[in-house]
Design goal:
The complex is a heterodimer. Chain A is mainly α. Chain A has nine helices and no strands. By secondary structure, chain B is α/β, with parallel strands linked by helices. Chain B has two domains: 82 residues, GMP Synthetase, Chain A, domain 3, CATH 3.30.300.130; 45 residues. Chain B has three helices and seven strands, in the order αββαβαββββ.
């Protein structure tokens, strides 16, 4: 369900960067599972979700580059910015951990991402609306999958249950900043989705706690630096090299 | 050099011979990727809508289209990407669906085994060999198969 019009009209430059950066960083995290998935089907699935997110990141960052008019490209934005210039959610830069951790992170993000994109699909900016409408279709599949995994692991063996509960609790303090500023009104719908899923997973819903903030201001956790070092290595070491 | 203004119907039929790089049994036209062909002055504009955002075939498809048209003597071709409305699996033509089936890929609202035609199937994974496909198994002949997801 889509709530009423957002209370704050998003600044398009901030918005495109925030959306693109979260997609890019999560894509990079998921890509690290490639070749390490627990079974072949999972390996393929994670790589496909990563690929969707990378494609979405390219669309947002290209639009950002075009609108800012500073003669930068999507590649400049991805490979030549330092951590302080990234605007991704702190949630998506958290390390992969075990499979429960990866899936809990994905579920929290997907549940928010789908709502955010559905809202942005109504934007009066035609480019934003087009990207969001396209991405929303993909993310509907992502959410279905991560939701299934949260239930499967939470309502699985004692060990998988313990791991899912641990992951859900550990990541909870990173969910608050998803609803800062113009996505504030999405919180009730997200909360309902999370509660229903965690209930089905027999996992205890974390109680409101202190929330980490800073991703939107470029104040990141110490986890982002090493990720960027790896992701940006080639362009940093061999400037302007092409594929 | 071919005269500049080739009929667009002719161009469409040339494009119908351009195979999708990942599913070569079906053309980029029958997959619904080519949305529009028209002349703008001396330039032929081909409008394409990518299937999935991250589909790695998108760049190759563009290249293949330009190369195919060049082989027919059209050198002034511009590709335009249209995101809205987003690509839908409903845009795959009836001919395309049949070609997919013969290639071993199910499509349409529900997965039916492309080999034996049984409707009792089970999902193995929501994502198959490409983002546009899921992996299923037939409960009758037990063969696994790709399912072109409704999208």
């Amino acid at each position: 369900m889509i709530a009423a019009a957002p209370p704050v009209k998003p600044d398009l430059l901030q918005l495109t960067l925030a959306m693109g950066d979260s997609d890019l960083i999560l894509s990079q995290r998921l890509g690290a599972w490639c070749g390490h998935g627990p079974v072949l089907e999972e390996d393929l699935a994670l790589a496909n979700v990563a690929l969707d997110l990378l494609g979405q990141a390219r669309m947002w960052l290209s639009l950002h580059a075009e609108r800012e008019g500073r003669n930068r490209t999507e590649d400049d934005l991805a490979f030549l910015r330092d951590a302080g210039a990234f605007r991704n959610l702190l949630l998506v830069e958290q390390p992969n951990g075990d499979y429960a951790f990866t899936m809990a992170r994905q579920f929290y993000f997907d549940a928010w991402h789908k709502l955010a994109l559905e809202q942005l699909a109504l934007s009066d900016d035609a480019s934003v609306a087009a990207i969001a409408a396209k991405a929303a279709k993909e993310v509907a599949y992502h959410l279905r999958r991560s939701r299934d995994w949260v239930v499967r692991l939470g309502d699985g063996t004692a060990e998988s249950h313990r791991r899912m509960q641990t992951a859900v609790d550990a990541l909870w303090p990173f969910t608050g900043e998803m609803f800062d500023e113009y996505f504030n009104h999405l919180r009730p719908a997200w909360q309902a989705e999370v509660e229903a899923t965690l209930q089905a997973a027999t996992v205890t819903v974390p109680r409101d706690a202190w929330m980490h903030r800073g991703g939107r201001q470029g104040i990141h956790t110490e986890k982002l630096g090493p990720l960027l070092a790896e992701m940006q290595f080639l362009q940093r070491a061999y400037p302007n090299s092409t594929w | 050099m071919v005269s500049q203004m080739v009929d667009v119907q002719q161009v469409w039929s040339w494009l119908e011979a351009v195979p999708d790089p990942e599913i070569p049994a079906v053309s980029v036209v029958d997959l619904g990727i080519v949305r529009d062909v028209n002349w703008q002055g001396k330039e032929l504009v081909v409008t394409v809508t990518p299937t999935y955002s991250g589909c790695p075939a998108t760049t190759v498809i563009g290249r293949d289209i330009v190369a195919a048209l060049r082989s027919h003597g059209l050198n002034d071709v511009r590709l335009e990407t249209r995101l809205s409305p987003p690509w839908s699996s409903e845009w795959v033509s009836a001919k395309g669906r049949e070609q997919l089936r013969q290639f071993g890929i199910a499509s349409g609202p529900a997965p039916v085994c492309p080999r034996c035609g049984a409707a009792q199937t089970e999902r193995l994974s929501q994502f198959g060999s490409t983002p546009c496909k899921a992996l299923y198994r037939c409960q009758s002949c037990r063969e696994p198969f790709d399912y072109f997801k409704p999208f």
